């Protein structure tokens, strides 16, 4: 045991040997019929979306209480179904909506149209280095 580190128990090893001797070549588990999710429905996704859009400061716990589903399901709805992520404890969309993209485009186009006014007032310059500059001493500045 010390030579190989963590090892499997005998029972799963015997099961795998039996599977491989029967001709199984896959090491992944077969699909199982599980209990269908009853809380991650379109109705609940719509409620979570509405709550987040109304108040983006809500916590996962408060959304779960309002929609009456568990917190892990709310987390999955926010991240997987609504494609949101947590930023400074706010759930925000990962990508801009079409409306936000259009607004940014309009603002940028307005800036480009009026660029003569803005660019005419910009002052540029080069960095100047002053060598052998010594600040005055207190006595020198008093003279």
- What is the CATH architecture annotation of the domain at 42-93? Orthogonal Bundle
Report the C-alpha radius of gyration, rounded: 32 Å
Strand order of the largest sheet: 1-2
Q: What is the CATH topology of the domain at 42-93? A: Arc Repressor Mutant, subunit A
- Looking at how many chains there are and whether they match, the oligomeric state comes to single chain
Order of helices and strands: HHHHEEHHH
Helix content: 40-55%
User: In angstroms, what separates the terminal alpha carbons?
Assistant: 87 Å
Structure, described:
The chain has 143 residues and is mainly α. The protein has a domain at 42-93: Winged helix-like DNA-binding domain superfamily/Winged helix DNA-binding domain (Arc Repressor Mutant, subunit A, Orthogonal Bundle). Helices cover 50% and strands 6% of the residues. The chain has a two-stranded antiparallel sheet. Helix 3 (60-67) packs across helix 4. The radius of gyration is 32 Å and the shape is elongated. It starts with 9 loop residues before the first helix and ends with a helix. The mean pLDDT is 77.
Task: Provide a short characterization of the protein structure.
This protein is mainly alpha-helical and 143 residues long. Helix content is 50%, strand content 6%. The chain is built from seven helices and two strands.
Q: Which helices and strands appear, and what pairs or packs with what?
A:
Blueprint: H1 10-21, H2 42-54, H3 60-67, H4 71-81, E1 84-87, E2 90-93, H5 98-113, H6 115-120, H7 138-142
Antiparallel strand pairs: 1-2
């Amino acid at each position: 045991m010390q030579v190989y580190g963590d090892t499997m128990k005998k029972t799963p090893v015997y099961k795998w040997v039996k599977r491989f001797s029967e001709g199984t070549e896959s090491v992944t588990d077969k699909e199982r019929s599980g209990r269908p999710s009853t809380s991650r429905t379109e109705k609940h996704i719509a409620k979570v979306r509405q709550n987040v859009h109304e108040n983006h400061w809500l916590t996962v716990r408060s959304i779960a209480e309002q929609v009456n589903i568990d917190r892990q399901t709310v987390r999955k709805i926010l991240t997987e179904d609504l494609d949101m992520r947590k930023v400074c404890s706010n759930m925000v969309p990962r990508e801009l909506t079409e409306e936000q993209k259009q607004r940014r485009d309009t603002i940028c186009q307005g800036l480009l149209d009026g660029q003569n006014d803005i660019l005419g007032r910009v002052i540029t310059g080069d960095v100047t280095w002053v060598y052998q500059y010594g600040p005055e001493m207190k006595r020198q500045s008093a003279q």
